[in-house]
Specification:
Pilus assembly protein CpaE; alpha+beta; 134 residues; single chain; elongated
């Protein structure tokens, strides 16, 4: 799973979250950093309100939360979501001993991104793509 710090870096690089069912997220800086939440039709839903989008926690008596602004939540994209965000630039993923390597092609140049997990390698490639889009 993608770590909070890497997710923060992606958000700072300009990654926007368009919440969908099954998305994982955390609510940092509220003593909930270690808690993983998943958007679901039954318990955690995104609501559009005049003041902005919020994430509503329906019937979760174990949490002292009614809702949080979408901007307060930190999306933790899954491996498949990171790969999808790379779009047509993605070429391959392979494992080289204990390192995962994501190869992407951008403007005719191939580049490899290496990390200890596939998610982190995808995240590095995505950060590169986001930086190039500026």
């Amino acid at each position: 799973m993608l770590g909070i710090e890497v997710a923060r870096q992606l958000k700072a690089a300009g990654l926007t979250w368009k919440p969908q069912l099954g998305d994982r997220f955390t609510v940092p800086d509220r003593d909930l950093d270690d808690e993983l939440f998943v958007l679901s039709n039954m318990t955690i839903q995104v609501h559009d309100r005049p003041e902005g989008r919020i994430i509503g926690f329906n019937g979760t008596t174990e949490w002292a939360l009614d809702d949080v602004d979408l901007d307060e939540a930190l999306w933790l994209p899954r491996e498949d979501q990171l790969r999808e965000l790379l779009g047509g630039t993605f070429r391959s993923l392979h494992q080289d001993r204990e390192t995962y390597v994501v190869r992407m092609e951008l403007l005719g140049a191939e580049q490899d991104f290496r990390a200890g997990t596939a998610e982190d390698a995808y995240a590095q490639a995505l950060q590169h793509l986001l930086a190039a889009a500026l």
